[in-house]
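Job type: complex structure
Entries:
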Amino acid sequence: MSVPLIRTKNLKKYFPVGGGLLHAVDDVDISIGKGETLGMVGESGCGKSTLGRLLLRLVEPTGGEILFKGENILGYGPGKMKELRKEMQIIFQDPFASLNPRMTVSEIIAEPIKVTGTITNQEELLERVFDLMEIVGLAERFVNTYPHELDGGRRQRIGVARALALNPEFIVCDEPVSALDVSIQAQILNLMMDLQDEMGLTYLFITHDMSVVKHISDNIAVMYLGQCVERAPADELFEHPSHPYTKALLDAIPVPSLKNRKKLDVIQGEVTSPIDPKPWCRFAPRCPMAAPECLLLPPELMEIGADHFVSCVLFR
Amino acid sequence: MTEKLLEIKDLHVMYRTDDDEIYALNGVDLSVEAGTTLGLVGETGAGKTTAALSVMRLLPDKVGIVKKGEIFLEGRSLMRLTEADMRLLRGNDVSMIFQDPMTSLNPIHTVGDQIAEVLKLHYSDLGGDAIEAKVDEMMGMVGIPAERKGEYPHQFSGGMKQRIVIAIALACNPKLLLADEPTTALDVTIQAQVLKMMDELKRKFGTSMILITHDLGVVAQICDRVAIMYAGEIIELGTVEDIFEGERHHPYTVGLFGSIPDMTKKTRRLSPIEGLMPDPTSPPSGCGFVERCPRRMEICFGASPEAAVRGTHSVRCHLFAHPGKEATTR
């Protein structure tokens, strides 16, 4: 594996809420090599979006380290952080909410360039905007339209163009296709994979859709209630899912084929509260394989195969 | 062949706004047999929800207009019923589950009262105790302890709210349930729970169902027949076997399947459908899919294709409409 472009060590984010501390991200270690995609899956509320925002320091962590090219960026001051943001960008989930409705397409795409002052000449700036529009497959005629005039797929292309405007190395993609129809979703996924090949981009791809994550990722991390419960290369994870939660997640996906028209295997119960969780395994209350020792000790991430990590007492 | 519970014939619906006339349904023919589940599949704007709202006669007043067509429930024409008769039918014979459980419950009434409301309306002879007993029974059936009936919607999670909505919809044991994307807003493990429950309830009570969804995976798991909609028309209709395993398909259906990442094999690129759905403000003269179709022919621009039927499977595409070997068999 290549040298990681970005990695975290014991990254934590606790939000103070009425009833105590909400453990949104709890001791998460991830690492992404240059030009690779880490898929981050989990259900709503498991902390995957918070993790994405932590990496860009859009949210300040409670503890831990974020190393970008080996340097802990948590020590950076505002000036240095602003410089660094040119190298890390984000694409948001909802192309309807993440674009300013009062700005035209060209204003939106040019915004990051103006903010950082990378290009000051107006003509060059416009040329760059047209370049970016071409890269993401937006026709030139849309340059002066407003987001509401465009459909979801085109809007998400604007989001991609904006993220690319500063030639970043690393992009956090926070559910970039979940608000789109399948045929449009496929267009955007193809676009993102092509861009990665051409520009050597590194992605953290956050999604709850297991088929999408398998398609786009090199490695996959599965999150449950703020913790990473399993991490493995994509093929390995799908061939040998080991954590009971990963298995349940894979079993719950309705497959568009009649061959395995199985009785939907269902895990009972729902995600428990992330507020001041008990120190033992957080999945234990829903786990079909739960044993008494699950409620004794917090499980640790252990390597059970090449690059395959699981946190479950079954593997102790 | 079993008896037809619902029959929609040549339904045309349009929405009239100040600026535009939007052609939402352009001749939809559809039927549901007793005790079966029909999956209605299509992308945003295909007309799936409009079709369901037409059956419920809940199209927005003065804006949504049925231009042409008939809807029969057990042979009764719904279009000709008075609003009072229709109200008796809604919730009792036909009920509907909406997409978003967060917004379809009333936040200021307890969930128990909301289940009781539909019972009070349709069973006016039932006493208070009998209604409460029925509410407890419905809650038990969808897997929520009856002790929680005094709680308000915000005290429940998304999956539980959707189960309450299902309990309301099934309280009067309707013959037909219209489920409009019932699991789209839910997480996969919760989606699996809700789908399993709906499937069990269907078997138990023999309820027929139209399941509106854009997820072909969900369709493969619980539907008997599938209708694929595009731009206000049913472009392909058949049993699940016809759609998932059959040989001949509408090019749009092929594109829809090509857009889903396959979990079982490794493909570097997806094969999406290029382009977008046509503008619904101008009625299509030829085939509605022609602009995006990789296999279009000259005839496709001029004439709207007829359904080419073979057994239980029909495809509305000129590719299959040639006289001779592909001739219709009805």
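Summary: Chain B touches chain A through 47 residues (CB under 8 Å). The first strand of chain B starts at residue 4 and ends at 16.
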